[in-house]
Amino acid sequence: MGNAFHAYDIRGIYNVDFDKETAYKVGYFLPQLLGADKVLVGHDCRVSSPEIHDWLIKGITDAGADVDDIGLSSTPLVYFGTANYGYKASVQITASHNPAEYNGMKVSRENALPVGLDTGLGQIKAWIDEGRPTPPAAKKGSVRQMDIKPDYIEFLRKFKGDFSNLRIAFDLSNGMANLFAKEIYKGDDAVWLFDTIDGRFPNHEPNPLIPKNVEPLRKLVAESGADIGVIYDGDADRVMFVDDKARFVAPDLIIAMMAQYFCGERGEKSPRVLQEIRSSKAVGEYLQQYDADLHTWRVGRAFAAPKLREIDGLWGGELAGHYYFKDFFYSDSGMLASIIVLRIVSALKKQGKSFSRQIDELTKYRNSGEVNFRVEDKAGAMEAVKKHFEAAETPTAVMDFDGYRLEFPDWWFNIRPSNTEPYLRFICEAGTDALLERKIAETAEIIEGEFGGKRA
Question: Collapsing DSSP states into helix, strand and coil, what is residue 308?
Answer without folding.
Answer: helix
